[in-house]
Amino acid sequence: MKYLDSFEVVKLVEELCIEANIRLPEDVEYGLVKAKEHEQSLYGQAVLDDLLQNVEIARKEKMPLCQDCGMTVVFVDWGQEVLLVGKSLQESVDEGVRRAYLGSYLRRSVVSDPLYDRKNTGDNTPAVVHLRFVEGSEVKITVVPKGMGSENASALAMLSPGEGEEGVIDFVKDVVARKGQNACPPLVVGVGIGGNFESAPILAKRALLRPIGCRNADERYAGLEEKMLRHVNELGLGPGGYGGKVTVLDVLAEFMPTHIAGLPVAVNISCNATRHAGGRLKGREL
Amino acid sequence: MKGRKVRTPLEEDIVKDLHVGERVLLSGVIYTARDAAHKRMAETLKRGENPPFDLRGQVIYYAGPAPAPPGVPIGSIGPTTSGRMDRYTPMLLEMGLKGMIGKGRRNPEVIAAIRANGAVYFGATGGAAALLAKRVKASRVIAYEDLGPEAIYELLVEDFPLLVVADSEGNDLYEIGPGQWSSSRGERIGEDR
Q1: Within a domain: A206
Q2: Potential cystine with B103: which of A42, A145, B2, B79 (Cβ 3.0-4.6 Å)?
Q3: How do residues A174-223 score in pLDDT, each as one tens digit?
Q4: One domain, residues A84 and A160
């Protein structure tokens, strides 16, 4: 048996929130560079120039890449041999978020009541925490600041199994066609296939953590990703949505078992600032 | 970026001469307002009271900035999705608002109101928030301070880089732009409301 003091979780979450908001992951930056080489639309090229300059300014001046520093989504893979001592996991994560957003000039964008008061909580808490217990004595934390402009463009469909691959591709394409221009293209599209009504969207969000350009390990799903990428880019929405060849940098799909009667498909749209940062903590000897 | 230099407040003849696809470098005073500020302004107008600033000839930027670190006028400030403001926009245009800065599609009612009132909708690059902050020279909150990032900020901008995405003739770049790059646009479904 090992342990971790909850304060270590606080500190790591704080660091990761700051890093994720300020530094675009290398794979996404590389995706923007490749897009610039590939894009032929002048409007599209101008948008990509702006975005690449923005990455540079944000990193150099430690400014958030986007004013929407998101709702903070935190994926935690907790080694089951580790005991958390002190505050609860949710409280520890929230304290890390609070310190980062208040201390590092990140925008606080969370309201306490969705429908009536809509009063800002003032510190960007609570975070959305997705916890998995895993083997071992290590804790892996990934922070994903997720802006609402792209969340608002996301969707879930409960397809019939008979709709098959074509149904999945059509749905993904539809979602991007409807609202892709609002979500700061070039986009990264996460697709979660299978599970049920609540697990498919989490799977889609998890898909966004995979480096872009890196294909699903299952050949069939890797092929599906390629097809979806091609079909979605054929929409011609382009960078900024002004028209162009590069509407999405990549489509990343994950799958899981589902029910005999179902084919859930969740599409989680992410923007040109697809941000995430991860780190690890090792359990200490008791 | 190159572009036509335009100053606020916007004059009618200049707005009429701005066309979809044209690059603009905007200088002068503009005002931020997003969801909550629009809701309050609409309630104010419905009560027959004056909005927090005279809308005539002015430009609203759909944006909520990140907090400013010490010594700089503003934090990162890119555009938010304009479509959420569509329900309030025709009323503001009728009150004399001449320009809007944002990102994303507007509904047909807004495009029609832009045309009817001789206004313009500019696109700023969504996601380029740190870059855009560099073009803001001064800022102060003039209304709804309790809304935090959703307060109305008066910004002094210099050569703020924009693209005309909907013009006073009713043209809409989001509608016509993708056409030549698309091999399957016919299947596009519905309007984004």
Answers
A1: yes
A2: B79
A3: 999 999 999 999 999 999 999 999 999 999 999 999 999 999 999 999 99
A4: no
Residues of A within 8 A of B128 (CB-CB) are: 50-51, 53-54
* Strands B59-61, B23-32: pairing kind: parallel
Report the SS3 class of residue B2: coil
Residues A122 and A231 in one domain: no
Q: Indicate which CATH number applies to the domain containing B162.
A: 3.20.130.10
pLDDT < 50 positions in chain A: none
The answer to whether residue B44 sits within a structural domain is yes
Task: Please tell me the distance from the alpha carbon of residue A280 to that of residue B161, in angstroms, as a whole number.
Answer: 41
Residue count of chain A = 286
Structure token digits, residue A256: 């899981």
**Which structural domain, as residue segments, surrounds residue A192?**
149-270
Q: Is B83 on the interface with A (CB under 8 A)?
A: yes
Whether residue A158 is found in the same domain as residue A243: yes
Indicate the SS3 state at residue B99.
strand
> Which residues of A fall within a CB distance of 8 Å from B188?
177-178, 235
Cα B149 from Cα B3, distance rounded (Å): 29
Q: What angle do CA B157, B158, B162 make, to 5 degrees?
A: 85
ipTM of the shown complex: 0.95
User: Do both A90 and A112 map to the same domain?
Assistant: yes
A60 is a domain residue = no
**Chain A contact for B81 (CB, 8 A cutoff):** yes
Give the gap in angstroms from C-alpha A84 to the nearest C-alpha of chain B: 33
Q: State which residues form the domain around B127.
A: 4-170
Does A71 reach chain B within 8 Å, measured CB to CB? no
Shortest distance, CA B121 to any CA of chain A (angstroms): 13
Place B190 in a pLDDT band, splitting at 50, 70 and 90: very low
Indicate whether A185 and A248 sit together in one domain: yes
Q: How many domains does chain B have?
A: 1
The 10s digit of each residue's pLDDT in B42-71 is: 999 999 999 999 999 999 999 999 999 999
Q: Cβ A108–B149 below 8 Å, yes or no?
A: yes
Of B76, B130, B192, which is closest to A178 when you measure between CB atoms?
Answer: B192
At A250-259, the pLDDT tens digits run 999 999 999 9
Would the CB atoms of B133 and A109 count as touching at under 8 Å? no
Where do we find the tokens 């890797």? A222
Note whether residue B177 is domain-resident: no
**CA–CA separation, A36 and A239 (whole Å):** 10
